[in-house]
Write a structure and sequence with these properties.
five-stranded antiparallel sheet, alpha+beta, 10 strands
């Protein structure tokens, strides 16, 4: 009763027989409310990994000890990460029971995700400009390094017009219908806000936003969105939108790193475009000289 970890005792089928007070504090559910239920029926939700949940069910049926990390939901709908250790015990009659010890690891998960984002930023900055052969490579490299479920580059519209999606990236095997809705949507308010403010804009709970594109983002597994300006020399002509598959609150150091990264990428993009323009001009000049018999 005095441990900070949530403890659950179930029968052989995983139905709850007893929980401690820490379980009630962690989940928001009382002992009376959950008695006889299977924890996964009321703790798992939309963003819980289906593969992890299925593996846990198989482990329960198979018997023996196992452990796992999974995204659960409190009674109030708030998501949180737990590390679960399950031990099989038998009473004097030989009846099988399971003891589950749940330790919340949300903060550890968030720190790890922030570290992954910063590592992705540092990896990008470490590359020479020549390594970025196309804008698509820039987008795909950062999106995959950051563990994103969606990333897109929006170009600033002409005066009086909204920003336009220039290109997008998503991991393989994402739901085609949701991807199509994401590509066809009008610019989100967070994109316009990043253009207006010239700094990274962050929203760590997509479910609380009420724009039309949110269901499509949720269908891809999105939970957090941030948009960083690609500002190379003070001209904020484009922004990068990144949607993560985990809830994550921003920190000042992370926002600062993303802003610096946006400036670096903005310079790289300007260099790419200038190089392309120069090569195109050289080709036109050579072609014109050949036509004129001067080449």
């Amino acid at each position: 009763e005095h441990t900070t970890s949530a403890v659950v005792i179930t029968d052989s089928e995983g139905r709850i027989e007893w929980v401690n007070l820490s379980f009630e504090r962690m989940t928001g559910w009382t002992s009376a409310e959950v008695m006889g239920q299977k924890p996964g029926h009321f703790l798992q939700g939309a963003q819980t990994d289906a593969g992890t949940a299925a593996q846990m069910r198989n482990d329960i049926q198979r018997g023996g000890d196992f452990d796992a990390e999974i995204l659960n939901y409190r009674k109030n709908g708030e998501s949180y990460w737990v590390r679960i250790e399950v031990h099989e015990v038998k009473n004097q009659l030989g009846e099988r029971h399971l003891i589950g010890i749940q330790t919340e690891v949300t903060e550890q998960r968030h720190r790890a995700l922030k570290f992954e984002l910063l590592s992705a930023i540092n990896a990008e900055i470490g590359f020479e400009e020549g390594d970025f052969t196309t804008l698509e490579n820039i987008l795909a490299r950062f999106g995959s390094s950051a563990g994103a479920v969606w990333a897109g580059i929006w170009q600033h519209g002409r005066v009086g017009t909204a920003p336009a999606l220039d290109m997008s990236w998503a991991p393989p095997d994402m739901e085609p219908a949701a991807l199509a809705r994401m590509r066809g949507r009008a610019s989100p308010s967070v994109v316009q806000c990043a253009f207006d403010k010239g700094t990274t804009v962050w929203a760590d709970n997509l479910g609380e936003l009420s724009e039309e594109w949110i269901p499509a983002a949720l269908a891809l597994g999105g939970q957090t969105v941030f948009v960083l300006p690609l500002d190379g020399d003070g001209e904020n002509a484009a922004v990068m939108e990144v949607i993560l598959g985990q809830p994550l609150a921003a920190s000042e150091s992370l926002i600062r790193a993303l802003n610096n990264h946006g400036k670096h990428l903005g310079l790289v993009i300007q260099h790419l475009r200038a190089t392309r323009h120069l090569r195109k001009s050289e080709w036109i000049l050579r072609h014109g000289q050949r036509l004129a018999g001067l080449g």
